[in-house]
Amino acid sequence: MATNITFTMLKPDAVENNYIGAILQKINEAGFRVKAMKYTRLSTETAGQFYAVHAARPFYNDLVSYMSSGPIVAVILEKENAVADFRDLIGATDPAKAAPGTIRALFAKSIEANAVHGSDSDENAAIEGSFFFSALEQF
Ligand code: CMP
Fold first, then answer.
1. Exposed, middle or buried by CB within 10 Å (0-12, 13-18, 19+), for 56?
2. Does 15 map to a domain?
C-alpha cells in the first residue's frame, strides 16, 4: 500500500531562477503539506552519494557536478498517494516531454536542469528524506 510521504529537491536552476516560491505554491495547491524543509548546498561528495543509484549512467558525472553547482531546497511532503501524485505534478524527466501545466513544463530548462527531483517509490522517499533530515526534524 502507498505511504503518504514523498521527497523533493528544488534543484540549482529552480533556485537560481527565483522559482522557489512559485514551485512551492504549485505543490501546496496540489494538496501537499510540507513536513520538513531545508535550504542547503550539496558538495560533490554528497551529490554523488544522493545519486549513487545512477553511478553507472553516462550522465552521472555531469549530474553530480550540476547538483553541487548551487543551493537547493530539500523538502519532505505529505499527501495521500504522495509518490505517484507528485510524479504526476512534476511531469516527465525531460521538460520537452512533460505534460503542459506540470512543474517541469513550466519551470525546467533541460533534462539535467529539470527544476525538481521527485522520489520514484515509497522506499526511496524514506531513504532520500532521511538523507537530509533526522526523524526529529520531520514534523
Ligand atoms: P531526477 O529525477 O532528479 O533523477 C536523476 C536525474 O538525472 C534526473 O532527474 C535528471 O536531472 C538527470 N539526468 C540527466 N540526464 C538524464 C538522462 N538522459 N536521463 C535521465 N535523467 C537524466
1. exposed
2. yes
Lining ligand 1 with CB less than 6 A are 54, 59, 63, 93, 111-112, 114, 117
Does the residue 27 lie in any domain? yes
- Range(s) of the domain holding residue 122: 5-133
Threshold 0.90, pTM exceeds: yes
Atom of ligand 1 nearest to the CA of 118: 2
Residue 136 Cα, ligand 1 centroid: separation in angstroms? Answer: 30
pLDDT tens-digit readout, 81-128: 999 999 999 999 999 999 999 999 999 999 999 999 999 999 999 999
For position 100, which CATH number holds? 3.30.70.141
Looking at the structure of the chain, the number of domains it has is 1
**What pLDDT is stored for residue 139 in this prediction?**
87
